[in-house]
Write a structure and sequence with these properties.
The complex is a heterodimer of chains A (about 1000) and B (about 425). Chain A has about 1000 residues and is an alpha+beta fold. Chain A is built from 25 helices and 50 strands. Chain A has six domains: about 1-160, 2Fe-2S iron-sulphur cluster binding domain, sarcosine oxidase, alpha subunit, N-terminal domain (Ubiquitin-like (UB roll)); about 160-285 and about 415-490, FAD/NAD(P)-binding domain (3-Layer(bba) Sandwich); about 290-415, FAD/NAD(P)-binding domain; about 525-595, BFD-like [2Fe-2S]-binding domain (Arc Repressor Mutant, subunit A, Orthogonal Bundle), CATH 1.10.10; about 615-895, Probable tRNA modification gtpase trme, domain 1 (Gyrase A, domain 2), CATH 3.30.1360; about 905-1000, Elongation Factor Tu (Ef-tu), domain 3. Chain B has two domains: about 25-95 and about 180-250 and about 345-400, FAD/NAD(P)-binding domain, CATH 3.50.50; about 120-180 and about 255-340, 2-Layer Sandwich (D-Amino Acid Oxidase, Chain A, domain 2), CATH 3.30.9. The chains are: A alpha+beta (about 1000), B alpha/beta (about 425).
């Protein structure tokens, strides 16, 4: 049954039919429809079920405040739950399903909650489901979870892409109604750059629906003219389908552009999130109409008067054939007049005000509409659709009088300015008693760094509801914003607007005034969450007096519309219950986003491959082609090992270790941090950074250094080479490169800003290759070039030269205990060097080795690894590294901290080696227990295992650990429990298991 | 206190719920109390509750600048777990977790503690070794945890992307008895129970000054007048430094904004809580159906309870990567809370330089889960003027001595 009205529908194109489906039923609408208008136009009144009681629900609103008409939209990889029909543009092939019911929309088992509603008041779940203990989680909660939630979950991978956009504008205007357009014109006239965004797919906002006259034109025509002027200006950018989503500190503004929601799969990103820095933000976001709280105000067919007017004027859809209007203000008369003019029966206007003599009311009377003063709705009859209303007096207790048959009710409880963006960053509100609304208080605006307000409001968003006042306010706001953003003063006058004078609103929060408890249990405030007047009153009765308590206790305003529709009604009811003025109650906090925005848009392009893009060494592809079993290390991937056909990971690691010990191995060490520190004060600086003395290191030599935090804890280690008189090259751990560079800069910039030191992180500029093993020298010699003999390049020295025709810097350092060279070349030559070394190494049995072999090799030597032996609580002294702490220096970072009592405590656990008595491998992370339990009943500990490996060289399990009095307990046996409760015995030994004299590395 | 039960609801339903009494009274302050707790958040109310329950001290006022439970108690992501690494942390958080198990019955208010299980994902070899260590430590501490492999993770969380591409899931630390609770109800339940014991909960009462005499506390000045006391517990999370300054000492605390967000509600799709520390984000699904998401803290100190959008981006990116299906869900609401961070990211439960003044603060980003254990330990400290075993390690002196309790070893961000 079509509800379309000929001659209406300024936004639809009747020549373009659009086909779509709802719950599998094929329906047709027009280009320009929203899903809501198309459904209503096709006669679909009931669209969903409420959250708690599963009551039948239809459209209440026509915009972002709609709480009921939420649908599952799209299919497969384009399915999206909880999509508002009122802000969804219709497109060909759109598929929507209703939500929160089983088995069907018309028959929902969950509706049993509705009949139990009396037993399910606000917060009932806090008072029950407590016995027996454990029953909540096992029995009640699963049931609650299943019946809560709204839409079903998208399960397929998202078929769409999203993107970011960064922009700077002097002035951002949010809202493309007449106020926004006028504010933009006024701001643009000052010469500044202006962005105007409109959430909907069309310009003009409410004015073309509401009527009046601007500069002698109908509002619709004025909008066209204003747009023409703005489009012609080269300092103005206009954007439709873009919502002003959030305002953050320093003029940071989010714009949420729904690029392709209405044309899915057209190749464009679905959403684009604009991150804008704005000099000034003008919110021309209009106002939202409030419902009235009467019994049965949630029955499908009851809707906001302004929404009913929108559906008629914008989309040519009549919400009913015979309607009743109920109001406390003049605006709803416009709906009565429009519906009457469209040939519908307006059975009555029930006006809660005692006497109504305004021009609009007179016009209604003149049109033959019955205006009933001082009246209210006692009850709406109907379940899935309005059947009739019972009339009563507003001043009474709700004794039902006349029954008026109707199929729709238009309600208006007055208007609330949209103050969200104003409030996000701290803008305050003031209660306007006469207009019965919270509006922005211009004296308490959010201010920027210059102390001036950076958010301004324009038009209805300021509380200026009448067309003439609205445009005057918008003009002033635009001018002020332009000037505040650095524009020149403009004397251009604003437009002249004419509209009907309106009689004052009467604040009506409950209808009728004296309604009893039974009626109040049927007056909906939050339609989606099923919060009624009785619930708010219950919260007040039980002491949940703060508006935040009431919100949380009743869930008022916590639905997907976030209280846009009726939070003000709710807090007015709360104020009455507490017998205090509305401003004393206040509002809940307005939080971004204005309406929900997709997580996809927030994540933007940073998904999959582009989520934390991988850093690749110059040799990455070679590793990949040669069996690399990758391990994420920081932002890099490093080969854990190189798997050969038929090998397990463990076998591969053993092979690499053995080959490196017996022949020669090659390691891609390019990920190690390489930070150049340069300048006249560089030596002095490094003496502070490291526990060692670096200023005395001779040019050409290397030194192993330790770096501590100011709390004394060991944070990084690495080899430092002095390149020339005032230049040092500091190697860091792979994970530490960025962190340590930042650590250096923090000290330089905040403490020693007058020291002449520069630092540069050159990690990615060099490829670095370790050639490790007894045959390493032979491999280098086979390449030809510089002298790499023991005499020319001794252990812990470095030299520059050429190898195989490549410019290299060679370091004689070892992390394996073997003869070892680390060769650095410019990154672009990394692959060439690697290939040349591989070729030259062939006769010597060269093999690449990965990070795990690196770990085993160092553990066999008792070398510590940052992150294994250290965890942010370990000081160098714990690790037997006092030899690396200079005694000659006055100070280094961490020195003072290391003198604190607990740091010098002999009871601190110290590093030792551990050898299992049966040769097995101790599990990673195991603890060494002591006798008894502590005061908290925890098993006493006397140490923990920091590294544990199977040593292919020793053919047994080896480990290192921190143990109480460890170095004094050599040979003692300790007990290490496994998680399963079984125990391992290990003997305390020295940390070095292999070549204790260090002869092999120094050859 | 009239008891809550299904029968009580049925009885009240017959008279349109007109007979319910106030959950807690709203008295004017008396002239003097034996003990005053400043801060009616979870920790403050729990402190008062256990002062009465465990130590028989009921002449107590809990004074609150705003509305009770309005700070971090009402702003967190409601996760409760005790899989901490260091002994003192594991002890107090495990005590808290076990008290949560019986809280609904203890308070006669359903706080909806739901032991749905928490997984902390291991996404690098290093992280995996860290969690193996925690599992070993927990075994010795009597905390029930287990390291599980990727298949078990996938089985527990079907919506997770186990393969990366950036950080494959290598397993996770699983605490089956961890879970979530209804945060507001925890505050309300304690408030109701305290009120029933005769304690005064005084909201909208800001402390404006602290009077001391001879190095001991004498009274607090408030927006509702001067109130005398011999014992003053400062339990005010984000504003601890300001209160300490009124009493004339300083705290090693920095205050930063921590943000959280929720999606629109959807039908159940994730039963357990997942924390992904390598990518910085954690997520659970509330009983209402919202995906509840938390991330890291702002990099600068502030008191705004807002925070910058950049952190929301980072968190959402991390979670879209971990749970790709959420990219078509929508963010409903974002908010911030002020957390007070200590140098070692562990709390302070301590005597102070002023006699009779005690502080409970520094819970950083992990306070909600600790509430009952914190209240238990704090009440003991206040009642006996000396810390018991649960609080002993958390004294202020540890910063001077270098006796840190550093959990960052095991928990990258999410604490």
């Amino acid at each position: 049954m079509s509800a379309r009205v000929e001659g209406y529908g300024r936004l639809i194109d009747r020549s373009k039919r659009v086909s779509f489906s709802f719950n599998g039923k094929r329906l047709r609408g027009y280009a320009g429809d929203t899903l809501a208008s198309a459904l209503l136009g096709a006669g679909q009144v009931m669209l969903g079920r409420s959250f708690k009681y599963h009551r039948p629900r239809g459209l209440v609103a026509s915009g972002a405040e709609e709480p009921n008409a939420l649908v599952g939209l799209g299919e497969g990889g384009r399915f999206e739950p909880d999509q508002r029909a009122t802000t969804t543009e219709l497109f060909d092939g759109l598929a929507a399903i209703s939500q929160n019911h089983w088995p069907s929309l018309a028959f929902d088992v969950g509706e049993v909650n509705n009949y139990l509603a009396r037993f399910l008041p606000a917060g009932f779940y806090y008072k029950t489901f407590m016995a027996p203990r454990g029953a909540w989680a096992k029995i009640f909660e699963p049931f609650v979870r299943q019946s809560a939630g709204l839409g079903r979950v998208p399960m397929e991978p998202d078929a769409d892409a999203y993107e970011y956009l960064y922009a700077h504008y002097d002035v951002v205007v949010v809202g493309g109604g007449v106020a926004g357009l006028q504010a933009a014109r006024a701001a643009a006239a000052t010469g500044v750059s202006v962005l105007v965004m409109e959430d909907a797919a069309h310009w003009g906002g409410r004015a073309p629906v509401d009527g009046g006259e601007i500069d002698g034109m109908a509002p619709g025509d004025w909008v066209k003219a204003a747009l023409d002027a703005l489009e012609a200006a080269d300092n103005v950018t206009l954007r439709l389908r873009m919502q002003g989503t959030g305002v953050y500190d320093h003029g940071y503004h989010l714009g949420y552009e729904r690029v392709a929601d209405h044309s899915p799969g057209d190749g464009r990103p679905r959403h684009r999130l604009w991150r804008i820095r704005a000099g000034r933000i003008v919110t021309a976001t209009g106002a939202l109409e409030r419902p009235l709280a009467f019994s049965g105000n949630d029955v499908p067919g009851v809707m906001l008067a302004s929404a009913m007017r929108d559906y008629l004027v914008n989309w040519g859809v009549a919400a009913g054939r015979r309607i009743v209007v109920v109001t406390n203000n003049d605006d709803a008369y416009r709906t009565a007049l429009a519906m009457k003019a469209a040939g519908r029966v307006v059975a009555a206007v029930l006006d809660a005000r005692e006497v109504v003599t305004s021009p609009l009311a007179q016009a209604a009377r003149d049109a033959g509409i019955a205006v009933m003063e001082g009246r209210a709705i006692a009850e709406v009859r109907g379940r899935a659709r309005v059947k009739s209303v019972l009339v009563t007096t507003q001043a009474g207790a709700g004794k039902a009088g006349e029954e008026i048959r109707c199929d729709a009710v238009a309600m208006s409880g007055g208007w609330s300015p949209v103050v969200h963006l104003w409030s996000h960053c701290g803008g305050k509100l003031t209660w306007d008693e006469a207009a019965a609304m919270f509006r922005p208080d211009p004296d308490r605006a959010p201010t920027g760094a210059d102390g001036a307000p950076f958010v301004l409001t324009a038009g209805a968003a300021s509380g200026a509801l009448a067309l003439d006042a609205c445009l005057a306010d918008a003009h002033a706001a635009g001018k002020a914003a332009g000037k505040g953003a650095g524009g020149k003063a403009s004397r251009k006058a604003g437009p002249k607007a004419v509209c009907e004078a309106e009689a004052p609103i009467a604040p009506v929060w409950i209808m009728p005034e004296g309604a009893g408890p039974e009626k109040r249990m049927k007056m909906w405030l939050d339609f989606q969450n099923d919060v009624k007047v009785s619930d708010v009153q219950l919260a007040a009765r039980e002491g949940y007096e703060s508006v935040e308590h009431t919100k949380r206790y009743t869930t008022l305003g916590m639905a997907t519309d976030q209280g846009k529709l009726s939070n003000i009604n709710g807090l007015a009811v709360l104020s009455q219950a507490l017998q205090q003025e509305i401003p004393a109650t206040g509002t809940t906090t307005f939080r971004p986003p204005y309406t929900p925005i997709s997580m996809g848009a927030i994540a933007g392009e940073a998904r999959g491959e582009l989520f934390q893009p991988l850093r690749r060494t110059p040799l990455h592809d070679w590793h990949d082609a040669h069996g690399a079993d990758w391990e994420p290390v920081g932002h890099w991937r490093r080969p854990y090992t190189y798997l050969r056909a038929g090998e397990s990971r463990e076998q591969a690691v053993q092979r690499e270790v053995v080959n490196t010990r017996e022949n020669v191995g090659m390691l891609d060490a390019s990920t190690l941090g390489k930070i150049v520190v340069k300048g006249p004060d560089a030596g002095r600086f490094l003496d502070m950074m490291y526990t060692n003395m670096m200023s005395t290191l001779p040019v050409g030599k290397c030194r192993y250094g330790l770096m501590c935090s100011e709390n004394g804890f060991l944070i990084d280690d690495g080899v430092v080479a002095r390149l020339d008189d005032d230049t040092w090259l500091c190697h860091t751990t792979t994970g530490g490169a960025d962190r340590i560079h930042a650590h250096m800069e923090e000290w330089l910039q905040t403490e020693w800003w007058d020291w002449k030191v520069y630092t540069a992180n050159l990690t990615e500029q060099y490829a670095q290759i370790g050639v490790v093993g007894p045959k390493a020298r032979q491999v280098l010699e086979a390449l030809g070039g510089m002298d790499v003999s023991k005499e020319a390049l001794p252990f812990m020295h470095w030299a520059e030269g050429e190898l195989g025709g490549l410019p290299v810097r060679v370091f004689r350092i070892s992390f394996s205990g073997e003869l070892s060279y680390e060769i650095a070349v410019p990154a672009s030559r990394g692959q060439a060097l690697w290939d040349a070394l591989m070729e030259a190494g062939k006769p010597h049995g060269v093999m690449p080795y990965g990070t795990e072999a690196l770990h085993v090799l160092r553990a066999e030597k008792g070398f510590i690894m940052i992150g294994d032996e250290t965890d942010g609580t370990v000081i160098p002294q714990d690790l037997g590294l006092t030899w690396a702490i200079s005694k000659k220096k006055d100070d280094y970072i961490g020195k003072r901290a290391q003198a604190r009592p607990h740091m010098a405590d002999p009871e601190r656990w110290k590093l030792v080696g551990l050898e299992t008595t049966d040769g097995s491998v101790i599990p990673d992370g195991a603890y060494i227990v002591a006798e008894g339990v502590n005061a908290n009943g925890q098993r006493n500990m006397q140490g923990r295992v920091t590294s544990s490996y199977h040593s292919p060289t020793l053919k047994r399990g080896i480990a290192m650990g921190l143990v109480l009095h460890g170095p004094d307990r050599m040979g003692e046996e300790v007990t290490i429990p496994r998680i399963d409760g079984s125990e391992i015995k290990a003997r305390i030994v020295e940390t070095c298991f292999y070549d204790k004299e260090g002869a092999k590395q120094d050859v | 206190m009239r008891r809550y039960s299904a029968f009580a609801i049925a009885r009240e339903a017959l008279r349109y719920h007109q007979g319910w009494e106030r959950a807690w009274a709203s008295p004017a302050p008396k002239k003097r109390y034996d003990a005053i707790v400043v801060g009616a958040g979870g920790h403050g109310l729990a402190t008062a509750f256990y002062l009465g329950r465990n130590h028989g001290i009921t002449n107590v006022a809990v004074i609150e600048k705003g509305w009770l439970g309005g700070g971090n108690t009402g702003r967190n992501t409601t996760i409760i777990r005790s899989n901490y690494l260091q002994d003192p942390s594991a002890a107090i958080y495990e005590k808290a977790r076990s008290l949560y198990e019986t809280m609904s019955q203890d308070l006669n208010m359903n706080v909806m503690f739901s032991p749905r299980g928490v997984i902390m994902l291991a996404q690098t070899e290093h992280e995996k070794r860290g969690y193996l260590r925690t599992a070993h430590a927990n075994a010795a501490q009597g905390v029930d945890t287990e390291f599980i492999g990727p298949e078990k993770v996938k089985q527990l969380v079907p919506i997770i992307n186990i393969d990366g591409p950036r950080y494959p899931v290598l397993g996770g630390l699983w605490q089956a008895r961890a879970g979530t609770a209804r945060h507001d109800a925890v505050a309300w339940g304690y408030a109701r129970a305290c009120s029933a014991m005769g304690m005064d909960i005084i909201q909208n009462c800001a402390v404006t000054g602290i009077e001391t005499e001879g190095g001991k506390v004498k009274a607090v000045n408030t927006s509702k007048g001067r109130i005398e006391t011999g014992k003053l517990a400062l339990v005010v999370a984000g504003h601890s430094s300001e209160l300490a300054e009124m009493a004339g000492f300083r705290l090693p605390i920095e205050s930063v904004s921590l943000q959280a967000l929720v999606s629109e509600p959807v039908k159940p799709c994730m039963d357990v809580v997942v924390m992904a520390n390598t990518v910085h984000g954690y997520m659970s699904q509330s009983d209402k159906g919202e995906m509840v998401i938390g991330g890291g803290t702002d990099g600068f100190n502030n008191y705004t309870q807002r925070g910058s959008f950049h952190h929301i981006e980072e968190t959402v990116r991390a979670l879209v990567e971990t749970f790709p299906m959420i990219s078509r869900l929508k963010m409903l609401r974002q908010w911030g809370g002020i957390v007070d961070m200590t140098g070692d990211r562990s709390p302070i439960l301590s005597k102070t330089p002023v006699g009779g003044i005690y502080v409970n603060c520094g819970w950083g980003t992990g306070g909600f889960k600790a509430i009952p254990g914190s209240g238990w330990a704090m009440a003991e400290l206040v009642a006996k003027d000396a810390p018991g075993p649960l609080a002993a390690a958390f004294g202020l002196e540890r910063f001077r001595e270098g006796r840190f309790i550093d959990e960052s070893v095991a928990a990258g961000v999410a604490h």
